[in-house]
Design goal:
The complex is a heterodimer of chains A (256) and B (452). Chain A is built from ten helices and two strands. Chain A is mainly α. Chain A is elongated, with a radius of gyration of 25 Å. The relative contact order of chain A is 0.10. In chain B, 68% of the residues lie in helices and 5% in strands. Chain B has 16 helices and eight strands. In chain B, helix 6 crosses helix 7 and helix 12 packs across helix 13. The longest helix of chain B is centred in the C-terminal third of the chain and has 53 residues. Chain B starts with a helix and ends with a helix. The relative contact order of chain B is 0.11. The chains are: A mainly alpha (256), B mainly alpha (452). At the A-B interface, helix 6, helix 7, strand 1, helix 9 and helix 10 of A face helix 5, helix 10, helix 11 and helix 15 of B.
Chain lengths: 256, 452
């Protein structure tokens, strides 16, 4: 009986340690996973995000990217959501705090990412990682939503676009999870879309459309990147123009 | 047999003198004289494919709900104009081939005219007695730009709508009369009334094609009655045209060129995608896409709109000249105005009032070549500025920095090009001179050797 009570007590203590750690921040013990994450964090991230994710803000010499004042924003409360997105896309660790994060080679193994995510999530309560279900979405609803909410930055066929001082990247390489995360985070200049602006069901449709838009119904021959007239003009001049001038030169040559 | 037909025709038309003249008409041979012909054959493709499209396109702004074969658009609200274009692209036999060929032909048509124009300017072909031919040609170019813009706009996809919104802004920006002009054309604020679509449609499929065809006829009649120009040298002189007669030599070549133009345009139309409107979706007033661009031949206007710093002319609270005026209205007026005025300007400066049938080699009239090259570089730079956003995405060059560089280059590059062109002309002529002296010396040496 006493043994049983002891085991129960131990289990309860462990449970409390595991679940309470995120809520209480740095000083409380945390899971082994988050512990490994803390080491990785200290090595790779603290130079910009500060001790224990407090951020290195305004009175610093560097002006960060977007609306970040300083080396890096606080990570308290960004949750597993942001950590997972920024690490799996290779956005973090950033090289230069005043340059927009871009999709790049992921430097950590999946295990290390899980550890870092657990650590960032343990700093303060924050949103978790979403699980989208694009199969439930509707293509045409997704297309409308995309044109209304996203095409102004990411271009109508998601081929990417220019917004003042930043690139809205092409969305070809994004997995459903990336998209769901980006929409709920609003990285850099991108606005955050909350549940009230875009429900989970709408998000599923949006993702379904983006998955489709990677390889859309491409009738009409070789696609020129789906970015409209600029490459088309190049083809008109460099293909049709060069061929036709060549033909003119050939035809005008008088047989000797 | 042929003789019999000819006799029947001749008895009824008395056309033999014209026919014989046409058959003996001489075509001087230089490849650059064929560029105008390329434009002509492209125009034929435009009319042919355009007619096919008109059989299926509905120029209507009635709101409908799409239930066609393209799933991502299913259930979407759109105008009948857009719906019928998607339908003709995806569900009508040969519809997409015709639409794409039409669009490629439009891109190539303007390109061919532009290159033809450069040839005319750089060789002084516009000089007396051919000024009228030149003005008619320029007018064709201007109308072709408008025609292309209307075609791009009629479809009412996302890009059309954004293009029209920019056009509306430019119309509004005309000082004093802007609001009235915009009202007159659009019939109301963007996206315009149903009447506006009727106006665009009749202008695109009837008025402008008719005007362009008529001007082409006048252009060709003028070319024929004044005869072609030619480069000097050999037996060629101001009074003596050297070339190939239409039959048996020239007509087959011309036909070959025509069929090549048809082949290139239809191959592009069949093999290379252009303006996949089903991906853009229909236009609704609040929507937009990043990096919307016009077709290449209006890129210079977008470039000018982007390069112009934010700057309005205001008197008290009243904006007399809003910003789009500079890039959208003043800039093209300056470019076309300069081109129209060029023959008179040149005559005034050179005092040359003689008739010319021989062309200048660009290197021989160095100041004209240099001026034209400088002007061309100026327009090209502004044109390139129009795609600065694409360059940013592709190469990561900062957009703002690019614009600043362009703003400086617009003033710096033309003089540099002017100076460089002068140097190149001089260099080319000096080399020729050296070459000629060498030949003379060789001839003399040979003659001397023979004498010995």
């Amino acid at each position: 009986m006493r043994r049983a009570a002891l085991v129960l007590l131990a289990a309860a203590a462990l449970f409390v340690a595991l679940t309470a750690a995120p809520a209480r921040g740095d000083s409380t013990p945390r899971s082994a996973l988050a512990g490994r994450g803390a080491e990785l964090y200290a090595e790779n991230c603290s130079s910009c995000h500060g001790i224990a994710g407090a951020g290195i803000g305004a009175p610093s010499t560097v002006h960060g990217v977007g609306d970040v004042a300083g080396f890096g924003p606080s990570l308290r409360g960004v949750g597993a959501l942001a950590a997972d997105f920024y690490l799996r896309t290779g956005y973090m660790p950033l090289r230069n705090p005043s340059v927009q994060p871009r999709r790049s080679k992921v430097e950590f193994s999946p295990d290390q990412i899980r550890a870092l995510v657990a650590y960032v999530a343990s700093l303060a309560p924050g949103p978790g990682i979403p699980t989208p279900h694009p199969a439930r979405g509707s293509l045409s609803e997704g297309m409308s939503l995309f044109v209304q909410n996203c095409a102004g930055c990411h271009q109508a066929a998601a081929a990417g676009g220019y917004v003042p001082d930043a690139v809205a990247p092409p969305l070809g390489p994004n997995s459903p999870r990336d998209i769901a995360e980006a929409v709920r985070i609003g990285p850099n200049l991108m606005p955050r879309f909350s549940q009230s602006r875009l429900t989970d069901a709408q998000l599923d449709s949006l993702i379904a459309y983006l998955l489709y838009a990677r390889h859309p119904d491409d009738r009409g021959g070789v696609a020129l990147g789906h970015v409209g007239p600029v490459p088309e003009g190049l083809v008109a001049w460099l293909v049709a123009g060069v061929v036709l001038v060549g033909v003119c030169i050939t035809i005008a040559r008088r047989p000797a | 047999m042929i003789r019999a037909i000819a006799r029947v025709l001749e008895e009824r038309t008395h056309a033999a003198p014209f026919g014989l003249k046409a058959l003996r008409y001489l075509f001087p041979d230089h490849w650059s004289f064929l560029l105008g012909e390329v434009a002509l054959y492209t125009f034929i493709v435009l009319v042919g494919t355009g007619t096919y499209l008109a059989l299926f396109f509905h120029p209507s702004t009635a709101q409908v709900v799409y239930h066609g074969s393209y799933a991502p658009l299913d259930g979407m609200q759109m105008t009948e104009a857009y719906r019928s274009t998607v339908h003709l692209s995806l569900d009508v036999r040969a519809g997409l081939l015709m639409r794409q060929t039409h669009h490629w032909a439009a891109d190539v048509f303007v390109a061919a005219i532009a290159v033809h124009l450069m040839r005319i300017v750089f060789t002084g072909a516009f000089r007396k007695p051919r000024e009228l031919t030149y003005y008619v040609g320029l007018t064709i170019l201007g109308l072709a730009l408008l025609e292309g813009y209307l075609g791009y706009s009629l479809v009412d996809d996302l890009l059309s709508g954004m293009g029209l919104a920019i056009g509306y802004g430019v119309a509004l920006s005309l000082p004093f009369i802007g609001a009235n002009v915009a009202q007159l054309i659009w019939g109301g604020p963007v996206p315009g009334t149903a009447d506006f679509w009727s106006r665009m449609y009749i202008t695109h499929v009837f008025l402008l094609p008719l005007a362009i065809a008529t001007l082409i006829a006048i252009h060709l009649a003028l070319v024929a009655s004044l005869h072609h120009t030619q480069f000097g040298g050999g037996r060629r002189s101001e009074r003596r045209l050297v070339g190939l007669p239409a039959l048996p030599s020239y007509a087959p070549r011309s036909l070959a060129l025509m069929f090549t133009v048809f082949a290139v345009l239809f191959l592009l139309g069949g093999l290379v995608q252009i303006n996949p409107i089903w991906l853009w979706g229909p236009y609704h007033v609040a929507d937009g896409t990043n990096g919307a661009q016009p077709d290449w031949y209006l890129g210079w206007l977008i470039g000018a709109l982007r390069l112009m710093p934010a700057f309005d002319v205001t008197i008290l609270d009243y904006t007399v000249i809003p910003n789009p005026f500079w890039g959208g209205a003043l800039f093209p007026s300056v470019v076309f105005g300069t081109l129209y005025a060029w023959p008179s300007i040149e005559r005034r400066f050179s005092g040359d009032r003689v008739r010319h049938n021989l062309l200048d080699r660009p290197r021989d009239v160095r100041w004209r070549t240099a001026t034209a090259a400088a002007f061309l570089s100026w327009v090209l730079l502004i044109f390139m500025a129009g795609s600065a956003d694409r360059a940013y995405i592709l190469f990561g060059w900062s957009y703002e920095t690019q614009l600043q560089i362009y703003r400086v280059l617009v003033f710096v590059l033309p003089p540099v090009v002017f100076w460089l062109t002068l140097k190149i002309c001089d260099e080319l002529r000096r080399n020729e001179e050296v070459e000629r002296h060498r030949h003379e010396a060789e001839d003399e040496a040979r003659a001397a050797a023979n004498r010995v």
